[in-house]
Structures are given as C-alpha cells and as structure tokens.
Specification:
By secondary structure, this protein is an alpha/beta fold. The chain has 16 helices and 23 strands. It has helices at 3-11, 53-68, 77-93, 95-106, 110-131, 167-180, 195-207, 221-230, 243-255, 280-292, 312-322, 344-360, 393-396, 412-419, 435-444, 481-484; strands at residues 19-21, 24-26, 33-37, 44-49, 138-139, 146-154, 157-161, 184-188, 214-216, 236-240, 260-264, 270-273, 304-308, 363-366, 370-371, 379-380, 383-386, 403-409, 427-431, 449-452, 464-465, 474-475, 485-493. The strands form 7 sheets. Strands 14-17-18-13-12-19-20 form a 7-stranded mixed β-sheet, with helices on both faces. Helix 5 runs parallel beside helix 6 and helix 10 crosses helix 11 (312-322). The longest helix has 22 residues, at 110-131. The structure holds nicotinamide-adenine-dinucleotide. Nicotinamide-adenine-dinucleotide is lined by residues 161-165, 170, 188, 190-191, 220-222, 225-226, 229, 240-242, 245, 248, 264-267, 299, 398, 400, 426, 464, 466, 470-471, 475.
C-alpha cells in the first residue's frame, strides 16, 4: 500500500476506546475518559474509557459467571480449537486495520505492525487453538488397588496486565494459552496503547468466544491494574511490564487472595562478540538491527554490547556505517524501519539516559538527539555510546529506547561476569566459532534465552521469560499452560 493510502486510512480511523465487558462495548462507570494521542504525529486517536475498581468488579463478575456456567471451559476442546482458529483467521482478515491501530497507537513502523505484530499474534492464537485438543492428562504409576489421575484444570478467572511495546502480541501471549486452557480472561492493556486489544475482543466474540469469557478494560495501572491485582475473585494474574511494577504485583497478590502471579519483566541483555566470531558482518548487522528494532522498545533488546578489544575498531566502523539505515522515518511509509517513541514520558526518559551517558564520560559516536520534530511526533535518533564502563547507569539500567552501550573486553570469563552483573536475566548472546566456548558461555550466562551466533531466532514453540528480576514466568510454548492451569490429583479406589 502507498504511504498516501496509509495516511488516508489513518485520517479516517475511528477507533473505539470504550471498554469491552460481557460481550458489550461500554463506557467506564465513572464516565471518565482519557485521550489517546498518537506518537506518530500527535493527533488524538480516541477517547479511552478510564476504567477503575467499579469496572474491574463488573468485568471480574462477568468473567466468573462465564467460568462457573462452563460456557467456555465446558466446551469440547475440539470446539474451543475451532473457535480460536476462527479468531486467528479473523485477525488475518483484519490485518491492515489492526496494523494501522498498532502503528498509530504506539508508533512502530507499519511494515512491522503488519508483518511482525499481527502475524505473530494471530499465529500465537492459532497455535494455542491447535494445541487445545492435543494435550493429554496423566495416570500415575500407583499400586493396583487404586487409579490416580493427574489432570489439568483451568485456574478460573485470569487477569492479564500488559505493556505497550508489542500491545497485540503481548495480549496474544496471555490470552492464547489462558483461553485455550478454558479460563475466562480480563485483559488490561497499557494506557499508552489500548486500542488493538479492544478490537481483538470484538473479533474474539465474532469468532464465537462466548460473551463474558474475554473482557478488556483500558485504564491506568494504579487504578484498573491495581484493582485487578488486589481483586479477591481473580484466580491468577499474568503480568508483563517493568520490574518495578512486577514487584508490586507480587505484593498485591500476597496481600489479597494469593492469586497465582506470573511476571515477565524488564531486561538489560548482553550481546558478547568474541574476536573469533564466525561472521563479523552478520554480528554487526544483528547487533545494530536488534537494538534499534521497535525503536529499542523491546524487553530483550541487546542493549549492552561486549566486543573483544582486538576487533572493537573494525566492529564500530561497520556499525557506524549501518546506523543511518535505522534513522527514524514516517511510520506510515512501508520503507521505514524505525518509528516513533511511544509518548512524551518515554521520550524524556530516553533523552535523560543519553544525557546521563554523556556526563558519565561515555563517547557518543552516533545519534543522541530528538528527530523529525516537524512531524509533531516523537522520534529519537539511533544512538551509540562507546567507551562505556560497567558502573555507568547506561550500562546497568533498562533504557527502553534506541540506545546501544558498547563495552570492550579481553577475557571472556570477565565479560560473562559483567554480563551477569545486573539484576536482569532475560536474554544474552555469544558469538564465537569455537563451539565448546559457546556452550560454556551459554551455560554460564544467567538468562532465560541465550543466542549463539545470531540474536533474532524466535518461535512460538519455545518459552520466553527471565531469570532473576526479569520475572518468574514463561510465555509461549506448551510451558505457558503451567501458568493458567491447576494440577488436580484424583484417587480412585479399585
Ligand atoms: P509498566 O510496568 O509501567 O506497565 C505495564 C502494565 O502494568 C501497564 O498496563 C500498566 O498500566 C500496568 N501498571 C502500572 N502500574 C501498575 C500498578 N501499580 N498495578 C497494576 N498494574 C500497573 O511497563 P511498561 O512501561 O508498560 O512496559 C515496559 C516494560 O515492560 C519494560 O520493562 C519491558 O522490559 C517490559 N516487557 C517485558 C516483556 C517480557 O516478556 N519479559 C515483554 C515486553 C515488555
């Protein structure tokens, strides 16, 4: 589609920001709204319902009723499968509409909203739909005078609280396994990008997910999010977001009804490139492409690059040549690879870290400033700091923007030690042609995912989540069912 056509579609966009409860679009009970502003150009996209504790009560009651009368959990798995696959098909049929909502709401380039976000999100729903009638329970090897069954049952009412960086995909990672397992869901998208989640709820209903089974409450974290985390009738909360809020979620679960609480949190992932890496060009391309993808707003972005000193100059030469390709552009132009930063707050945070890096003495080799200000939107140049020291804040804290910190090393064990020295443990990578070295490094790296000689491999079949303060849960793969099911043992006397 041409850029002009995307702009015409954006101009005609009529996004509905009302909540979705029990199969209906509704205003917040308080009648309050907030404006959703597009980071692409500052335009107002929608008035969004500012849900709070009253709406949370209504949605949880609807979800509980739907769970208890078994309108979803009681369906044969093959029927749930058919409905979820129809849901995925509808997402594909509405690919352009969903992609446009995502781009306008959070700023990512339209080419990726279409080819990555909608594509992966529908694939996730489809994959869990397909899994629904292929998972068997167990019979325990007990003595002859008894039969002991070990069965998975849905946990009940699942609250899902998600961030804004991949709004639709994070929603899919929660609702896919939660719905496939037979739960009812109340999803709270981020206040910064709620529109695609709301549309997903309508498509799910159209596909045949019964009313009340999938509810969406837009609103602020300390209002709707907190009310969900504290609710006495929510059985499980699946949270993706910052480590700071993740800690509060665990506390609120403990303070209320000990709901199962799963957290997928922040990261400061280390990418270690050894001098014997098999393909320096590929390592550079991957390091640069991965940190600037999604404007650097990826939890697993390799934001700390450790380069062996003997190849540091060659590496940086190549990197600096590539960086201009990632300059921010119009997110509605299909050629653009770097879009807008989600909002003013995030913009200030990222620019603040850039200033912090400069004053700490790191060498700014690329970027470092706001861009495209004439557009009315929020953009930052792809930024690279060399000469970063492990003690600097830009090497320790999650920036969540297009900023790469380069550190050099001479001893791999020392690099691994430094890589492990943050509170995070989401992802890491090592590049070397020596497989024994790669295996030793991948064993030593304390991270949920370790990449060897690439950074971008991803698939719904593998779990995703963190060690340490990157969280306690795993999204994706069949392991995600562990979060949304209870194990029941039934002893039968023979
Ligand atoms: P955030 O923690 O500010 O917000 C996440 C969600 O929590 C939002 O819906 C927000 O409204 C809600 N929230 C905020 N305060 C709350 C409270 N007191 N009680 C209940 N809910 C509350 O995070 P963010 O800025 O939206 O997202 C960025 C973060 O998400 C980054 O740290 C990133 O690394 C992380 N992330 C992690 C993964 C992963 O899989 N590990 C994936 C994507 C993003």
């Amino acid at each position: 589609m041409t850029t002009t056509t995307w702009h015409e579609r954006a101009a005609a966009l009529n996004a509905d920001g009302r909540a979705f409860i029990d199969g209906w679009r509704v205003d917040a009970r308080s009648g309050l709204c907030f404006d959703s502003l597009s980071p692409v150009d500052g335009r107002k996209l929608a008035e969004v319902a500012r849900c709070d504790v009253l709406d949370v009560d209504l949605a949880v009651t609807a979800a509980r009723r739907a769970f208890e009368d078994r309108r979803w959990a009681g369906k044969p798995p093959a029927e749930r499968k058919r409905i979820l696959i129809r849901f995925a098909d509808l997402m594909l049929a509405h690919r352009d509409e969903l992609a446009l909502l995502e781009t306008m709401d959070m700023g990512k380039p339209i080419r990726y909203s279409r080819s990555v976000d909608v594509q992966l999100a529908q694939n996730c729903i489809r994959w869990y739909g397909e899994a629904t009638d292929k998972i068997y329970d167990q019979v325990a090897p007990t003595s002859e005078d008894s039969l002991a069954l070990i069965q998975r049952e849905p946990v009940g009412v699942v609250a899902a609280v998600i961030p804004w960086n991949y709004p639709m995909l994070m929603a899919a990672w929660k609702i896919g396994p939660a719905l496939a397992a037979g739960n009812s869901v109340v999803l709270k998208p981020s206040e910064k990008a709620p529109l695609s989640s709301l549309r997903l709820a309508e498509l799910a209903l159209e596909a045949g997910v019964p009313a009340g089974v999938f509810n969406v409450l837009p609103g602020y974290g300390d209002e709707a999010g907190k009310a969900l985390a504290l609710h006495m009738d929510v059985d499980c909360i699946g949270f993706t977001g910052s480590t700071r809020v993740g800690k509060q979620i665990l506390q609120m679960a403990g303070q209320s009804n000990l709901k199962r609480a799963w957290t997928e949190l922040g990261g400061k992932s280390a990418n270690i490139v050894c001098a014997d890496c098999p393909d320096l060009d590929a390592a550079v391309e991957s390091a640069i492409g991965s940190i600037y993808f999604n404007q650097g707003e990826s939890c697993n972005a390799p934001s700390r690059l450790f380069v062996e000193e003997s190849i540091r100059e060659a590496f940086l030469d190549k990197a600096l040549k590539l960086i201009p390709r990632h300059a921010p552009g119009d997110p509605l132009d299909e050629e653009t690879v770097m879009g807008a930063i989600v909002d003013q707050t995030q913009m200030k945070t990222v620019l603040g870290y850039i200033e912090e890096g400069k004053s700490a003495g790191a060498r700014l080799l690329a970027g470092g400033a706001a861009a495209r200000q004439e557009s009315g939107g929020l953009y930052i140049e792809p930024t690279l700091f060399d000469g970063v020291d492990g003690s600097m804040r830009i090497a320790r804290e999650e920036i969540f923007g297009p900023v790469l910190s380069v550190l050099s090393f001479t001893d791999l064990d020392e690099a691994i030690k430094q890589a492990n020295s943050t509170p995070y443990g989401l992802a890491a990578a090592v590049w070397t042609r020596d497989m024994s070295k790669a295996i030793r490094a991948s064993r030593a790296l304390r991270a949920g995912t370790v990449h060897v000689n690439q950074y971008d491999n991803d698939d719904i079949t593998v779990p995703f989540g963190g060690y340490k303060q990157s969280g306690n849960g795993r999204d994706k793969s069949l392991h995600a069912f562990d979060k949304y099911t209870e194990l029941k043992t039934t002893w039968i006397q023979v």
